């Protein structure tokens, strides 16, 4: 009798990786208004808690700051062309990625703001926070002509925190 099923692994290959319980992708939408900022922050925090993602407090605070900045930018700059934004959270074995998508075609850049300005540093802050913990950030165009601004952070810092 021949049993059909899995093929014995090649000794030269790594064994297949089993997914951990908290891995996955979640997406939600919000109206492009100020209330979306705390809603997104709370939704991301609750998702990580409910999924029991082993994220350290420092990384969690960094991620929530990034969520606030990305959603704030979408609300301030994309509302005219994008009445709704999407927030996507992707969680892997050792990282978490948050992305904010809107329908505005403008590709934002991290600019150094004038010292007298009270705003304009959002993406600069996102980049600095991601860099600090060994993460990354980028902006990509969507097929529909909008954009996705995302940041990916490791669940644990990849380098020791810098001392002042």
Please explain how this structure is put together.
With 164 residues, the chain is of the alpha+beta class. The protein is built from three helices and five strands. Strand 2 and strand 3 (95-102) form a beta hairpin. Helix 1 (36-50) runs antiparallel to helix 2 (57-78) and helix 2 runs antiparallel to helix 3 (122-132). The longest helix is centred in the middle third of the chain and has 22 residues, at 57-78. The radius of gyration is 19 Å and the shape is globular. Mean pLDDT is 83; it is low at 1-8.
Topology:
Elements: E1 24-31, H1 36-50, H2 57-78, E2 84-91, E3 95-102, H3 122-132, E4 136-141, E5 147-154
Antiparallel strand pairs: 1-2, 2-3, 3-5, 4-5
Distance between the termini: 69 Å
Topology pattern, helix = H, strand = E: EHHEEHEE
Category by helix and strand content: alpha+beta
Kindly provide the radius of gyration, computed on alpha-carbon positions and rounded to a whole number of angstroms: 19 Å
Number of strands: 5
**Biggest sheet, strands in spatial order?**
1-2-3-5-4
Strand content: 15-25%
Helical proportion? 25-40%
Q: What is the overall shape? A: globular
Uncertain spans: 1-8
Biggest sheet features: 5 strands, antiparallel
Question: Main traits of this protein?
Answer:
five-stranded antiparallel beta sheet, 164 residues, alpha+beta, 3 helices, disordered N terminus
How would you concisely characterize the structure shown here?
With 164 residues, the protein is α+β, with helices and mostly antiparallel strands.
């Amino acid at each position: 009798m021949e049993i059909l099923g899995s093929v014995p692994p090649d000794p030269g290959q790594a064994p297949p990786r089993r997914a951990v319980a908290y891995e996955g992708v979640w997406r939600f939408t919000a109206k492009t208004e100020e209330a979306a900022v705390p809603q997104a922050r709370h939704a991301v925090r609750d998702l990580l808690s409910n999924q029991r993602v082993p994220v350290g407090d420092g990384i969690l605070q960094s991620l929530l700051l990034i969520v606030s900045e990305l959603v704030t930018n979408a609300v301030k700059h994309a509302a005219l062309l994008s009445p709704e934004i999407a927030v996507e959270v992707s969680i892997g074995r050792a990282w978490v990625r948050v992305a904010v998508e809107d329908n505005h075609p403008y590709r934002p850049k991290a600019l150094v703001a004038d010292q007298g300005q009270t705003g304009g540093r959002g993406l600069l802050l996102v980049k600095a926070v991601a860099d600090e913990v060994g993460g990354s950030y980028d902006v990509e165009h969507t097929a529909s002509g909008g954009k996705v601004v995302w940041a990916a952070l490791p669940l644990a810092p990849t380098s020791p925190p810098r001392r002042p």
